[in-house]
Amino acid sequence: MEELYDQYRALLFTLAYQMTGSAADAEDAVQDVFVKACDVHPERLEEPKAYLCKMVTNHCINLQKSARKRREVYTGPWLPEPIRTPEADSLETTVVRRDLLSYAMLVLLERLTPTERAVFVLREALGFDYSELAELLGKTETNCRKLMSRAKSKMGLSEEEQVTAKAVEMEWMNRFVASLEQGDFEHVLSLLTEDVMLVSDGGGKVTAFKHPVQTRHLVARVLLNGFKSFGADSQESLPIEFVPTNGETGILLRSGNETITAILFQLRDGKLARIYFVRNPDKLTRV
């Protein structure tokens, strides 16, 4: 079992993380599955990848059903937990860094039912074919195809559209930060799409917007005022750090040694379409 754990842990963590949007829940799911797998008869583990993925998927589907009830009383918008992705390639980072596993895609996955999410992640992220999905989920291939079509529709993706998300480049990020540093309202405005939205998650534990901030002018003002609140006179003194987060470049805001905000972005045609401020301290332990 130790050999199976070493071989499949990263893959199963990625699956569970994409299913739940929580690194903590993903780690618990993987541990729980391997504990239960110790009691499984060896004959049932002849194809360990499929069997373990099925166990993790079922665990996460059940978890998501209860999580939805908890989120109904969550204070303000709920955002997924970001994770730092190392520079070095490994099974885990190779999977996580694929375009469809970006932070923006994690947010889109929240629109799906647990079963739709399972089909989408297993198919698009992990490459399972429909016959494998049918066996794993106990459904017909036709039903799995319908679930995939429904998932793409809810996420705003056509059947022909590839699931891609433009990663934020460091050069672009440096220009963005420079425009904030200079207090250049017009330049910040030019970097935002017409339908830009800023979403912040404080979980009721720290200050955050209870509703998404919309319109270009309002988002630009929030960004500039937020920058000024740190009282930085230069980029060098600004308490921020560029970090590889969910396979992209994210920004961490710090107060001393404590991370107080993780900022993630979604670009569309070279402009910011979505800005995510994760401020809930419980979601900042892995960045």
What is the topological layout?
Elements: H1 2-20, H2 23-37, H3 48-71, H4 91-96, H5 103-109, H6 114-125, H7 130-137, H8 141-154, H9 170-181, H10 185-190, E1 192-201, E2 213-214, H11 216-228, E3 240-245, E4 248-255, E5 258-268, E6 271-278
Parallel strand pairs: 1-6
Antiparallel strand pairs: 1-2, 3-4, 4-5, 5-6
Helix pairs in contact: 1-2, 1-3, 2-3, 6-8, 7-8
Characterize this entry briefly.
With 287 residues, this protein is α+β, with helices and mostly antiparallel strands. It is 47% helix and 16% strand. The protein has two domains: 2-154, PhyR, sigma-like (SL) domain (Butyryl-CoA Dehydrogenase, subunit A, domain 3, Up-down Bundle); 170-283, Nuclear Transport Factor 2, Chain: A.
Describe the protein's architecture and organization.
The protein has 11 helices and 6 strands. The protein has helices spanning 2-20, 23-37, 48-71, 91-96, 103-109, 114-125, 130-137, 141-154, 170-181, 185-190, 216-228, and strands at 192-201, 213-214, 240-245, 248-255, 258-268, 271-278. A hairpin with a 2-residue loop joins β5 and β6 (271-278). α2 (23-37) packs across α3 (48-71) and α6 (114-125) crosses α8 (141-154). The longest helix is centred in the N-terminal third of the chain and has 24 residues, at 48-71. The radius of gyration is 20 Å and the shape is elongated. Mean pLDDT is 85; it is low at 88-97 and 232-236.
